[in-house]
Design brief:
Layout: E1 9-14, E2 19-24, H1 25-28, H2 31-34, H3 37-48, E3 62-65, E4 79-84, E5 91-96, H4 100-106, E6 109-115, E7 122-127, E8 130-135, H5 144-155, E9 161-164, H6 167-170, E10 178-180, E11 184-186, H7 191-197, E12 200-206, H8 216-232, H9 234-242, H10 247-253, H11 275-281, E13 283-287, E14 297-301, E15 311-313, H12 317-324, H13 332-345, H14 349-364, H15 383-395, H16 400-403, H17 406-413, E16 424-425, E17 428-429, H18 439-447, H19 460-465, H20 482-499, H21 506-509, H22 511-522, H23 528-548, H24 561-564, H25 579-593, H26 603-608
Parallel strand pairs: 1-6, 7-12
Antiparallel strand pairs: 1-2, 3-4, 3-6, 4-5, 7-8, 9-10, 9-12, 10-11, 13-14, 14-15, 16-17
Helix pairs in contact: 3-20, 3-23, 8-22, 12-13, 12-14, 13-15, 18-20, 18-25, 20-23, 20-25
The structure holds iron/sulfur cluster.
The site of iron/sulfur cluster has 13 residues, from loops.
Length: 616
C-alpha cells in the first residue's frame, strides 16, 4: 500500500467515447520498480501502445505524469508529458516546469492518461472529483496565451493551471509543443501535435487537496536542507542571477555554439545575445516553478524599436543558440519576438530554429529559390524572413507546410546533397552544442532515447575539465571514457526524471538527498544504488520500446556535417569527428550497457533489471 508522496489516483480519459475512469495508483504500476514520471509513462506506453501505431492515430496515447515528490516541498519538481513522437516515431518524454504538476497532485491525481480522439475540439476540466470533457469550439484557433486567459475567465478563477496547444498543434506541425503559464513549455518531440491530433485543445487543472507524506518531520528537515544546499550551490546561484542565457558566451568561446546551421561553432554576435545585455536591456522580473528558490525564469520586455511590447520569459540559451546564432541573428529583440511567437503559436524553439537555419542554408546554396519561398530572401541574418517563416510554419502556409514536417522529412523532399547538413538525430533536431568540439556530446546525441537531445547526458563539463568521473585524465577531443560518462549520466538523469526533478537543481540537491526525500515522502526504503538501477531499468525499457517501433542501429549516427566539415575557426579550428571515433564509443557503450553489437539489450540484462515482461 502506498504510504505517502503519491496523490493516489490516475485518471484515464478516452476521448473517443468520453469514458472517464479513476484508477488507484497502487493498482496501476509497481512504484518500487518505476517510481513515477518517466518511469510511469514508459511502463504505460510499453504495456498499452500497440506496435507501429501512427503517432497521429487515435490509438496513440498521451501521458501527463508527475512524480512522488511533485507538489511537495522538494525544490523544483515538474511534469512529464510522454507519447510516441510524430517527429521520430520513438518514445518521447518532454518536461514542463511551472505549477501544473503540483496542481494535478493537489487535485488528487498522479497522472492523466489520454487515449482516443474526440470528434470535435474539447478541453479537459480537472478539479478534484469533478472531471469534464468540455466543448472547446470557442478556443480552437486561439493562441496559447488567449486559451489560458479564456479558460480562467470563463471559470472565474485566476489560479487555474492550463496546459494547451496553439494553432501549430492544431495543424499537426510535427514539433508543436504544449504550453503552460504562457512561458513554460513541454517543448521537444511534438507532444503538442499529438494533442492536436486528438482534438484536445487544453487541460485545465485546479486542486484543493494536499499530498500525504509518510514521515512529515523527517521530510521537512530534508526539504529545508535541500533548499539550503541549492541556495549555497555556485552553479545554482549563477542560474538564479543569469538564467540559462549565460551559456552563450561559454559555448561561443568553446566552439560549441551552433552558428549558421552548425557550419561554424562560434558566433561574432554572441556578446549581443549575452545575459549581460539581456539583464541591462530586457529583463524585468525573476520567476520560479513550484517550490523553487532559484527563480531562473527571466521575464523580459522589449521597450523600444520595432519589437516594442514583446513580453517573453527567457530568452533561454537554447533559443538564443538556435533562433539566434544558428540563424545568424544577433538582435536579441528579434529573437525575443520570434520566441514569443513560438510560445503563442505553439512551436518548439529548438526545432523551429533548426528548420529555419536549414532552409537558410538551402537558400544560400541555391537548393531553394525565391520561387519556393514565396519571395522571402532566406539569407542567414535576415530576421524579418525568420519571423515570417515562424508564422508560416505554425499555419502550414506555403513553404511553411514543408518546414512543419521537421528537418529530416523536409530534407528528404529536397535533393540528396541537403541531407548532409540536415542537423538531426533520429528525426529530432539538434540542440545547442556542436559535437565536433565535443565527441562525448556526439555519443550522447546518438544514444539519447528521444533522438538528438542534450538532457539525457551532457559530458561537456568532464571534457572541458579534462577529468573523468573516476579521476583519470581525459583529452578534450578524444573518445576515452565517453561511454562510461554518458551511460552514468543517462541512468542518473533517468532516475531523477522519475521524480520529475528539475535538471538544473540535480547537482545541488544530489542523488543521496533525493533518495532520502523519496523514502521520507513515500515510506520506500530505496538505496542510492537501487535508485540508479531504476534509472537503468527505465532506460532499457524505453530502448525496448524503441526497438519494437523499428529503431535500427544504423540510425545511431550523426549528420554528415559532423564528420566532413571541420570547425572553421576558434579554439577547436580544424576539429571534426571521425566515423571510427563514433563507432569506438558506441561499441564500448553497448558493451557497458550489456547490449549486443546491434544495440539490443541481452535477455540477461533485462532479467537482471526485472524487465522479464518485455522478453518475447
Ligand atoms: S531552477 Fe528554474 S526551471 Fe528549475 S525548478 Fe527552479 S525555476 Fe524552474
Amino acid at each position: 500500500m502506498l504510504k505517502g508522496g503519491y496523490a493516489g489516483k490516475i485518471l484515464e480519459i478516452n476521448l473517443t467515447d468520453g469514458d472517464v475512469k479513476k484508477v488507484e495508483t497502487e493498482n496501476y504500476f509497481d512504484s518500487d520498480l518505476f517510481i513515477g514520471g518517466k518511469g510511469l509513462a514508459a511502463y504505460i506506453l510499453w504495456k498499452e501502445l500497440k506496435k507501429n501505431v501512427d503517432a497521429f492515430s487515435e490509438e496513440n496515447m498521451l501521458v501527463f505524469a508527475t512524480g512522488p515528490l511533485t507538489g511537495t516541498l522538494c525544490p523544483g519538481t515538474r511534469m512529464c508529458i510522454a507519447t510516441k513522437s510524430p517527429l521520430t516515431g520513438l518514445f518521447c518524454d518532454s518536461y514542463v516546469g511551472g505549477h501544473l504538476g503540483a496542481e494535478l497532485k493537489f487535485a488528487g491525481y498522479d497522472a492523466v492518461v489520454v487515449r482516443g480522439k474526440s470528434e470535435k475540439p474539447v478541453y479537459l476540466w480537472i478539479c478534484d472529483n469533478d472531471i469534464e470533457i468540455c466543448d472547446a469550439k470557442h478556443l480552437w484557433g486561439l493562441d496559447t496565451f488567449r486559451v489560458e486567459d479564456a479558460i480562467r475567465e470563463e471559470r472565474g478563477d485566476r489560479a487555474i493551471r492550463v496546459a494547451c496547444i496553439g494553432p501549430a498543434g492544431e495543424k499537426l506541425v510535427r514539433f508543436a509543443h504544449i504550453n503552460t503559464e504562457r512561458y513554460r513549455q513541454a517543448g521537444r518531440g511534438g507532444t503538442g501535435a499529438v494533442m492536436g491530433s486528438k482534438n484536445l485543445k487544453a487541460l485545465a487543472v485546479r486542486g484543493n487537496g494536499s499530498i500525504p507524506i509518510y514521515d512529515v518531520e523527517e521530510f521537512i528537515g530534508l526539504a529545508k536542507e535541500a533548499h539550503k544546499a541549492v541556495l549555497e550551490n555556485e552553479t545554482a546561484k549563477a542560474r538564479k542571477r543569469w538564467g540559462t542565457a549565460r551559456t552563450i558566451i561559454f559555448t561561443s568561446d568553446q566552439n560549441l555554439l551552433p552558428t549558421r546551421n552548425f557550419r561554424e561553432a562560434t558566433f561574432e554576435g554572441a556578446e549581443l545575445l549575452s545575459a549581460e545585455v539581456l539583464e541591462k536591456k530586457f529583463w524585468i522580473k525573476h520567476k520560479a516553478c513550484h517550490s523553487c528558490p532559484i527563480n531562473c525564469g527571466k521575464l523580459g520586455v522589449v521597450r523600444t524599436g520595432k519589437y516594442t511590447g514583446t513580453v517573453v520569459e527567457g530568452i533561454e540559451y537554447e533559443t538564443l543558440a538556435l533562433m539566434g546564432a544558428n540563424c545568424g541573428i544577433s538582435n536579441h529583440e528579434a529573437v525575443a519576438y520570434a520566441n514569443m511567437l513560438c510560445d503563442m503559436l505553439g512551436l518548439d524553439t529548438i526545432s523551429t530554429g533548426n528548420v529555419i537555419a536549414f532552409a537558410m542554408e538551402c537558400f544560400e546554396r541555391g537548393i531553394l529559390t525565391e520561387e519556393d519561398t514565396e519571395g522571402l530572401k532566406l539569407n542567414f541574418g535576415n530576421e524579418d524572413a525568420m519571423i515570417k517563416l515562424v508564422k508560416k510554419i505554425a499555419k502550414r502556409e506555403g513553404i511553411g507546410n514543408l518546414l512543419a514536417e521537421g528537418v529530416k522529412r523536409f530534407s528528404e523532399r529536397l535533393n540528396v546533397q541537403s541531407r548532409s547538413f540536415a542537423m538531426h538525430v533520429k528525426g529530432l533536431e539538434l540542440p545547442g552544442y556542436d559535437v565536433r568540439a565535443s565527441p562525448g556530446m556526439g555519443l550522447a546525441y546518438v544514444t539519447a532515447d528521444r533522438g538528438g537531445c542534450h538532457t539525457r547526458a551532457w559530458p561537456i563539463s568532464y571534457e572541458i575539465s579534462g577529468k573523468a568521473p573516476d579521476g583519470t585524465v581525459i583529452q578534450r577531443y578524444s573518445v576515452e571514457k565517453r561511454a562510461l560518462i554518458v551511460k552514468m549520466q543517462q541512468d542518473e538523469n533517468t532516475a531523477c526524471d522519475t521524480l520529475v526533478a528539475c535538471w538544473f537543481l540535480k547537482g545541488a540537491v544530489g542523488k543521496e538527498r533525493y533518495v532520502k526525500m523519496l523514502n521520507a515522502a513515500t515510506g520506500m526504503k530505496l538505496t542510492v544504488k537501487e535508485f540508479l538501477e531504476v534509472g537503468e531499468r527505465i532506460w532499457n525499457l524505453v530502448r525496448m520500446f524503441n526497438i519494437r517501433e523499428g529503431l535500427k542501429m544504423e540510425e545511431e549516427t550523426l549528420p554528415d556535417r559532423a564528420f566532413k566539415d571541420p570547425i572553421p575557426e576558434g579554439i577547436a579550428a580544424g576539429q571534426k569527428l571521425r566515423r571510427e571515433q563514433l563507432e569506438t564509443m558506441l561499441e564500448e557503450y553497448y558493451k557497458l550497457r550489456g547490449w549486443d553489437e546491434k544495440g539490443v539489450p541481452s535477455k540477461e540484462k533485462l532479467m537482471q533489471l526485472g524487465l522479464n515482461f518485455v522478453i518475447s
